[in-house]
Fold this protein.
Amino acid sequence: MSQVALRLTSVVVCLTLLSVATGTRAATLIAFWPLEETDLAQGVVDSAGTLPPGAFPAAGVDPDVPGPPGFGSAVHFDGSGAIGAPNSINVGGSNVLNLANNFSVTAWVNFENLNGKHSIIGSTAWSFRSTGSRPHLTTFGIKDYFGDAGALTQGEWIHMAMTLDSNNTASFFVNGQPAGQDFHGAPGNTNVADFHLGIARNQGSALETMFGSIDDVRVYEGVLTVDEIQLIMNPIPEPSTVVLLVLGALAVIPATRRRRTRS
Ligand SMILES: [Ca+2]
């Protein structure tokens, strides 16, 4: 099993066990780019298996820079590009990622510069990005949701997550800790073009290119809990740990059943 497949399996196992333990229904992973590609000619794989491979641009990105510890390689964006010719990764998904609310996004980011706006992923429906030192979700034409000022830092890997619940409340998390909430009364729009990693949208005046590196970008349908976000941001558990978790869960279930049988 490849390292990426093992990591995905590990996270699924851990989230499932967490859901069983808490009695909550886990959010559903619908797109996951581990960004393990190392050559611009390679397709950018969605390990969730939902979308066909995305495409690197001809220039402006380096597909083979070190990611955060435990997450393999990452992609560096040089902040260049123009509307119509963006230096970003087109991952499609206009009919899959066009979520109006009740979704979550997570990613590792290493900003080289926090001046202005720098997008992790976006389309004409929504964009998850930075504005200055604040996490920022835009549902274009509807609402700008902001997290806490000072929550973001540059020059180091930080883990960013956002959730937009079914009441259109956005919650932000940085390195697994709450980083602000923002509210609105209407969902986002779902009439969208292709999604891109590294820009907000490829039309109008909102290119908002990433200047820095990103890795391990995930989109979920549903609202992740803070515990789930902390699991996602952790590097791959050792296989022995996963095996122990599964064996532990299997041991608990018969014991619970025996207790129920006796009572
Ligand atoms: Ca990676």
